[in-house]
Amino acid sequence: MIAFTGSPIDRADNIRADPSVLAGLMNWRARLLVMDGLNPVFDDAGSLTWGTLADAEETAELVFLGMMAGKACFAAVPDQGAGSPAYADPAIWQAMQVLSPGDLALYGGARSLVDWHARHRFCARCGATTKLAKGGWQRDCPDCAALHFPRTDPVTIMLVEHEDRLLLGRQPRFPPRIYSALAGFVEPGESIEEAVAREVYEEAGVRVRDVTYIASQPWPFPSQLMIGCHSFADDPDLTIDRTELDDARWFTRAELETARAAGEQGTEDLVFPRSYAIAHHLVTWWMDK
């Protein structure tokens, strides 16, 4: 299973849209996802910690996550949204290694949602203070009547194949020997296929063709959707943009097989992408097809 997918919660849009029904569910049976700001809080078993609505601060905005096991589930909006890159926070990496797939998916969705609320308390149109609406899946401006909705930023992440080799790159912030699939945000007015072609050319100087979709992954840091693709290159010559990449290389199937077999330690040249990253699943798909 791809990390952050497979949430056990029913988002219950019909309840979000009915304030009276939602209000009736905000009782002693409702559950509150306990978080330390944007970070998860683990119980003794390494699972998410749940409390009651009485555990929330009196002035906190509560977001309706959905229904689970017959109970309404909520999360409180923190005072501040994310202010630093997620990869700099050890709690994030701990969550991805400790939480069960269902808990991780539930936490990821909750984190994205409450982080968006914490960073969008004011109307982008007129600057007035906005109010939580539709159970937290919307914010309304009482001054200019603008409606604001949680955003998801699409990012393409792509395999590039040439003569049974894959192009992988590494960013300067990556630990030594870790390479991954190239990736980049989809820009306004672009299709997914166009974004794949542009990003690969910008970062590695390679022209690609025949772009196909493989799989996707929600990545809640802060709220991206990683769109996994595969493409082909006819010319393997590289022109690396060193402002974006520390390095990019073509890896043979044998090199990837050896790195995968070596586990977390990897080989002298390559550490296989981590299992929580969609790059791991994309490369594994290519190797095993």
From TrEMBL:
An annotated GO BP: NAD+ catabolic process
One protein family per Pfam: Zn_ribbon_NUD
Cofactors required: Zn(2+); Mg(2+)
All copies of domain Nudix hydrolase, residue ranges: 150-277
Listed transmembrane segments: none
CDD domains: NUDIX_NADH_pyrophosphatase_Nudt13
InterPro entries per the UniProt record, alphabetical: NAD-cap_RNA_hydrolase_NudC (IPR050241), NADH_PPase-like_N (IPR015375), NudC-like_C (IPR049734), Nudix_hydrolase (IPR020476), NUDIX_hydrolase-like_dom_sf (IPR015797), NUDIX_hydrolase_CS (IPR020084), NUDIX_hydrolase_dom (IPR000086), Znr_NADH_PPase (IPR015376)
Reaction(s) this enzyme catalyzes, per UniProt: a 5'-end NAD(+)-phospho-ribonucleoside in mRNA + H2O = a 5'-end phospho-adenosine-phospho-ribonucleoside in mRNA + beta-nicotinamide D-ribonucleotide + 2 H(+)
Catalytic activity, EC: 3.6.1.22
Family that this chain belongs to: Belongs to the Nudix hydrolase family. NudC subfamily.
PANTHER family according to UniProt: NAD-CAPPED RNA HYDROLASE NUDT12, NUDIX HYDROLASE, NUDC SUBFAMILY
Name assigned to this protein: NAD(+) diphosphatase
Higher taxonomy: Bacteria, Pseudomonadati, Pseudomonadota, Alphaproteobacteria, Sphingomonadales
